[in-house]
Design a protein that fits this description.
The complex is a heterodimer of chains A (227) and B (94).
Chain A: H1 8-24, H2 31-53, H3 64-67, H4 69-82, E1 85-86, H5 88-124, E2 130-132, E3 139-141, H6 149-168, H7 171-187, H8 192-226
Antiparallel strand pairs in A: 2-3
Chain B: H1 12-22, E1 26-28, H2 29-36, H3 40-52, E2 56-63, E3 66-73, H4 75-92
Antiparallel strand pairs in B: 1-3, 2-3
Classes of the chains: A mainly alpha (227), B alpha+beta (94).
Chain lengths: 227, 94
Amino acid sequence: MEKKQMTEKESLAIITDMVNKVKSHYHENGSYLILWGSVITFCSLMSAAQAFWNFSIGFNIWLLTFLAVAPHIWLITKENKRKTVKTHAGSAIDVIWLVYIVTIIGIILYWNVTYHISPRILADNGIELLSRNISSGELKPFKLFAPSFTSIFLLAYGFPTLATGLITRYHPFITGAIIIYVCFAVSLFTEFKSDMLLSALSAVSGWLIPGWMLRKKYLHQLKQADV
Amino acid sequence: MFKDLNPILHSQLRLAVMSLLISVKEAEFTFLREKTKSTAGNLSVQVQKLKDAGYIEVEKRFKDNYPQTLCRITAKGIQAFDDYVKALQGYLGK
């Protein structure tokens, strides 16, 4: 830029030009969304398949989500090296996804801890829960569990997706979040097998598709920057 | 009666830097150079002037063993930019 006396119109043109340059600068390449969208879709479909065809792969498929943390950290490191600017919206979205991760860990803890602790707490109060087989009349100890547990996860999936969509005004996220909330509502009335299919549908529509669309947009911007 | 335009902001490169920084939380020096299409030397001088005026904060640190300069707009800078835009609107509306 040259050093010269500016007119008021030129000043306004510079401000507009720079603000537009920030708006069009690429921020998100969709890599995390593709990673987590793929992992959750795969785990959900595998769980559904095991329930439908009554077989077991010998381990809990959802353990894959812990393995996905390593590539996630690698992606974060790579992304931080690439980023030369931090926007207010980007920082807010980072916080939302961090809170979401804490929430998911909290839900998993709640599920595992209460399942084992509840019978002990009831026993301390002199109560034992029993279940009775309707046809044989046999009584067995009954452990309390959270019914339709997938619904709670679906509700959690919807929160960061909708928040990101509303902040960025990126319609694929908003559409994805609406589909997730519909899946949540449906899952309240369905059994585990169907819940897993709804979970896969949510991961595809809320994360995988918006992730691919962002990736496509990002690669297009990179290509244009090279021209 | 129209307000005088702030001489610190009424310069092409300094105004461009402030316009970029007002839209973001923080930006690297390389980002500012890329978007303003300026030379490192000239940008460095203008960034220093904005820093001296208290309009921006400059933080120097290392990222992967390479020096990194981060720039952030201050509350004083936001106020000055706001006043400048208002004054500009006054001129353009006359």
